[in-house]
Amino acid sequence: MNVHAEKQASFLFRLRSQDTPTGVSGETLDALMQKTGLSKTEVTHLALRSLADAYLPHYERDEAALTTAQIQKIREASPSRDVPEESFTMTLF
Known about the structure:
mainly alpha, 3 helices
């Protein structure tokens, strides 16, 4: 038995007395548990994972401009490569 096991970070989660745009009630949590078959902890992790996927970048930030070669590769891969340039009213780069 490892008596010096590393303690995992945790936080207290308080449910709302009723559902709000930014919170859920115990009744909603129970319904989610019933519907998904997940525990309270698993439902909370799933919700936080969904938020992280929606709001956090999935790549390392890169502030460098695209090179001419990269722009050319994008244009070659684009399904609109056969559309004349004059047809576009706006460009990304």
